[in-house]
Amino acid sequence: MNKSISETGVSDYRKYGTKLWKKRLRRFANNKLAMFGVIITAIFVFGALAAPLLTPYNPLEPDFGSIFAMPGREHLLGADSLGRDMFARILYGGRVSMLIAAVSSLNGCIIGMVLGAVGGYFGGLFDKFLVRLSELFMCIPQLILVIVVMAFIGPGTFNLILIFAITGWTGTFRLVRAEYIARKEETYVQVCDAFGMNKLAIMFKQIMPSVLTLVMIQFTMGIPGYVMSEAGLSFLGFGVPISTPTWGTMMNAAKSVKIILYNPNVWLTPAIAISLFTLAVSFFGDGLRDAMDPRQQ
Questions:
Q1: Overall pTM surpassing 0.90 (yes/no)
Q2: Which helix (H) or strand (E) holds 7?
């Protein structure tokens, strides 16, 4: 009898969870801007992954016979000051730019999630220290802080990801901390604590699953900012080395007045790629937040 009741309860819970996810997916699918963002983001990701199949050109190999070639059949988006195919550089450069943004956002979310969980659940002096530290990071513009640090350790893809992760955890930390402070007072958490369940098990097995949706939204919303930051730093010479094709280094290579005036495709192409990708991911993140975040419903 008890087993039958238990099985019925589990079955009802699973049905409720499936129904809730279907409702969320339906709400997301009905958001036209979000679907537009998904389609454009998927096109960019596919183009970056399938670059060797979409273009025969090497993004690093110069072709002095095609210097500043205009868009046409041979070079779909034209060529730059060294004759390198712009379409190939957009595809291969997107690999690095999107990788830096995604990994940086993921690392920042992981750091913020762990610190927010520990600080929000245990409180005390350590929590106060983390709050003051996050306020210190937030009062200094991230771009200025990254430029200062990069001036000491030097440019590089790994260095840029590391600095972005170290300086980009505060938003996720404050979000997760607030959720843990609210949820640790709920009945199911207090029951687990009363039965002697391990603190880490309560934090990461009982509370964390209900917070992961918010962290996933935070991860998605952070990607456009990191793409823009990488482009800005690379344009200023503080990002990845100029020899590495990214959308930012492409803008750096096209910053002379002559190129701006007489060869607009060299700088306009990466600018459009940056704008379109960040806009698409922002639409995707907004739609995800509207569909998944219970505070928006």
A1: no
A2: helix 2-29
